[in-house]
Amino acid sequence: MAETGRLRQAAVAAPLLSPVTLLRVAIILGVLAVWEFLADSGWLYRDVVPSLLSIGRALAALLSDRNYYFNLGVTAAEIGAALAIGGTTGLAVGLLLGGNRFLSKAFEPYLYYLGPTPKIIFFPVMIMWFGVGPESKVALGTLSCFFPVALNVAAGMRQIDRVLIRVGESFRATTAQMVSKIYLPAMRHPIINGVRLGFGFALIGTLLAETKLSNKGIGFLIIQAYSVFDMPRMYAMLIVLFVLAIGANALIGRLGGLDRIKRT
Amino acid sequence: MALAQASADAILVADDIFVQFNTPEGPITAVDNVSFKVRPSEFFSVIGPSGCGKSTLFNVIGGLLGQHQGVVSVGGETISGPHKSIGMVFQEESTFPWRTVVDNVAFPLELVGMPKGKRAERARHFIRMVGLDGFENRYPGELSGGMRQRVSLARTLASEPKILLMDEPFAALDEQTRLLLGDKVLQIQQQLKQTTLLITHNITEAVQMSDRILVMTYRPGKVKRIVDIDLPRPRTSEIVSSEAFGRYVAQIWNDLREEANRGMRDEEKHMLNQDERTA
Amino acid sequence: MTLVVAHTRRSYRSYAAPMVGLGSFIAFVLLVEVLIRIGALNRFIIPAPSEIIASFGRLFLEENIVQRFIFTAAECIAAGVMVTVCGVTIGVVMQRFSLLQRACETWVAAFASAPLVLAYPLFMVIFGRNAWTIIMMGFFSALPPVILKTIEGISGTRKVLVNVGRSFNLTGTQQFWKILFPAALPTIFVGVRLGLIFALINIVGTEFLINFGGLGQLINDLAERYDLAGTYAAICFVILVSVLFFIVLEKAERWLRPVD
């Protein structure tokens, strides 16, 4: 509270910066200062908190490392494949369940309750089925992203405002017109949201599988850094990974938010 | 004026409509033995307490409710499913949020394959008619509730229906907007000589606009009376202060009060039963 | 129209659909069994369902699955208590100081979409290969939804309720405990429920990944020993436990939600 008070004064002195920005900068600087203090103090186990400088250096080394980009490409391809397979099947299953009450009642509970179970425990099974190569990672990523996409699309289809369907019927739209002009546009938000969630789950599934058993990909690099105890490199990789994941998530979300309508 | 016309040239005929719903508590008769005729260019209203089956009747006439007995015919043709001569305006917010105003209004024209340029031009015509010029390229989310309901009205008018069928189109709006929009509808109806069937529970609204009013009973919905409203046209919302107007309102309220009371008691009983069942 | 149809057929449809679902599931299991028996599926990749069912007994007698379950449950409870206390507190504090909320809420939301579980090697370095790594993994992945839902719940209190409080001249503290907090409770519980689900997923996952602890480690163990039927049976057990956990949480949430 004392800090906010000081910040308010600072804001008056420098009206260009809003108090929110100042607080953010203060928090970041504070965290970095504490971090650096801990790194210098030597209280913690060696290298658990490496100095900012060494993390920065590792980050620079990482971003100029060709090998890193190769592994990034491997992982991106695996995630892309997982999202493509899991997303398409999820969309198809979701449309089927959303459009048919009976099928939904019969099968959706299984998806609903299987959806939030930990998918990584299926990894041994995936290795048995698809081997130790990238295929098993794609399979786990696919499995992880299928559920959120299917459940979101099914729910989205049911949530379509009934009156919009009646409008289409009252103007005697054909089935094809109903699908292209009413169902799909009305479902754009849940579909995009499903893809956003599916992407996140595919990413986690693929990368975790890579950390468990693989010889290439970002997950492999992270676990390799762990095994040689190269902490700055591990922090650098996690930072890049988080930035990429959060950025991709925001980007997909932005796609869906542009024409969102507030209804009163 | 409406009285002068013979009933033989009716454009819309509803003959002995009967609708029953099966609910977990047994069958409920929503509409029972309802017959009426609407003449060309006439403004015809159906009024009743909530729960009298007005909206069911709306869906039957619009062809959206398959399960009914009795016949609805338009220009002598029995309807089975939505008919091209009937344009519906719904009670609920029903604009497409992903389409601009002009694309919303052009929707029915798009369905019948009218070329893009032409349908935009037609759409603009009806947008002007409901007084929304200048808002063509806005999305419904940027408009007020009353404006969105005008977009729905324009969209239905754009399909140039022989009969405009409206289900409490002003129910979700505030009182002032409702009055102004009522004037607008009345003006358009007179201008186009548009045959209109309005479903409502608002007595003043019905008396102000209609040539004839059908009063329905509470469950099962039957015809209680059909009242001729013999007031001069053009009418605006100012007419509500006239003495004749007051007499019509009083007469219809007299009919409705009994029904509304019955509805309220029924609802209370229903809730008590529910409590007993859950207890 | 659809509503009417649904009503008329509900009487027999209400049982028909779940029966079809269950029937399909049983039929699928039987089909797999048959395909394995006739050799169409490789029994060294997919064990026969009968074998899987038979190995459940082994899990109880030889693999101490009950103790493992208790261990995992204890980790979940520890993470759950920590995340409820910390998450709700942080949420309340952030909501009370609007500057803090405006500065940090997007950060928390961004963290909710970050693949936090991938930091598990880091946690292993910091906390060691023990239960704390697992608990902290569960804790951190569960934190964002609890914080966000707490903020949402308190900010979303209906204005008129706040004004009712004002009209009775409540003090700030009274206003919080008598109006804001009770009004926000259902939403907060949604956050806690989401958090607990994330915690469970990440706890079992981390156990599997670092090969330590309860049920997750059991799956890893059995897979490394190439005990196929046992691995499948253990996976089924974890799924059953998770599903039961979700059902309990849902029931609790419904019980908390006021009728409106």
Describe the protein's architecture and organization.
The complex is a heterotrimer of chains A (264), B (279) and C (260). Chain A is mainly alpha-helical. Chain A folds into 2 domains: 2-49, no CATH class; 61-257, MetI-like (MetI-like fold). Chain A has 12 helices and no strands. Chain A has helices at 2-13, 19-41, 52-63, 66-99, 101-114, 123-130, 134-158, 162-170, 175-186, 188-212, 218-227, 231-257. Residues 1-14 and 258-264 of chain A have low confidence and may be disordered. Helices cover 39% and strands 23% of the residues of chain B. The longest helix of chain B is centred in the C-terminal third of the chain and has 36 residues, at 243-278. With 279 residues, chain B is α/β, with parallel strands linked by helices. Chain B is globular and about 60 Å long. Chain C has helices at residues 2-37, 49-61, 65-96, 98-112, 120-127, 131-155, 159-167, 172-210, 215-224, 228-256. Chain C has 10 helices and no strands. Chain C is elongated. Helix content of chain C is 83%, strand content 0%.
Number of helices of chain B: 8
Inertia-based shape of chain B: globular
Count of structural domains of chain B: 2
Strand content of chain A is under 5%
Give the beta-strand count of chain A.
0
Helix content of chain A: over 70%
The CATH class label of the largest domain in chain A is Mainly Alpha
Question: SSE layout and pairings?
Answer:
The complex is a heterotrimer of chains A (264), B (279) and C (260).
Chain A: H1 2-13, H2 19-41, H3 52-63, H4 66-99, H5 101-114, H6 123-130, H7 134-158, H8 162-170, H9 175-186, H10 188-212, H11 218-227, H12 231-257
Chain B: E1 12-23, E2 26-38, E3 43-47, H1 54-62, E4 69-74, E5 77-78, E6 86-89, H2 101-105, H3 107-111, H4 116-129, H5 145-158, E7 163-167, H6 175-192, E8 195-200, H7 203-209, E9 212-216, E10 223-228, H8 243-278
Parallel strand pairs in B: 3-8, 3-9, 6-7, 7-8
Antiparallel strand pairs in B: 1-2, 1-4, 4-5, 9-10
Helix pairs in contact in B: 4-5, 7-8
Chain C: H1 2-37, H2 49-61, H3 65-96, H4 98-112, H5 120-127, H6 131-155, H7 159-167, H8 172-210, H9 215-224, H10 228-256
Helix pairs in contact in C: 2-10, 3-4, 3-6, 3-8, 4-6, 5-6, 6-8, 7-8, 8-9, 8-10, 9-10
